[in-house]
Write a sequence for this structure.
């Protein structure tokens, strides 16, 4: 199942793989409960929904509104917070002199939300300059991979 920019999906279907493409300054966030066999993926664009009125109809575009929705939907399918494995990719800078620093701001917003809610990141592949990443999560095993620069690695 492909998760587009500003979208999310949560699944308990062990035959599914969740994938998102073109994680530049955007963040891909994957949560997996290996016991319940529930996985979720979110592709956020921006850190804070206060900068745009569109958060009402597309809350998954923003870190502050998308992350709570991802977790609530995973809990609805049987995930338990204490068992969740969290992995994050993206947050790159568009250029070496990125004035808006969207990637960095996305990562900081995510860390703030996780810190406030006692959520640990188990693995991450974030930052860099002009890096585009693809993120893949397998519901059955909870395995997560990231492809960047033609190289694939487990996360």
């Amino acid at each position: 199942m492909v998760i587009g920019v500003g979208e999310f999906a949560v699944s308990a279907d062990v035959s599914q793989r969740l994938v998102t493409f073109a994680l530049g300054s955007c963040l891909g966030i994957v949560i997996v409960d290996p016991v319940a066999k529930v996985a979720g993926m979110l592709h956020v664009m921006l850190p804070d929904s206060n900068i745009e009125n569109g958060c009402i109809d597309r809350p998954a575009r923003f870190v502050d509104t998308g992350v709570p929705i991802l977790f609530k939907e995973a809990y609805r399918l049987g995930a338990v917070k204490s068992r969740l494995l969290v992995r994050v990719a993206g947050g790159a800078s568009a250029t070496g002199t990125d004035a808006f620093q969207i990637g960095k701001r996305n990562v900081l917003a995510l860390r703030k939300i996780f810190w406030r809610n006692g959520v640990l990141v188990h693995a991450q592949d974030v930052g860099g300059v002009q890096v585009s990443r693809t993120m893949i999560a397998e519901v059955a095993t909870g395995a997560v991979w990231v492809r960047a620069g033609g190289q694939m690695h487990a996360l």
Observations:
- The first strand starts at residue 8 and ends at 11.
- The CA atoms of residues 82 and 119 lie 9 Å apart.
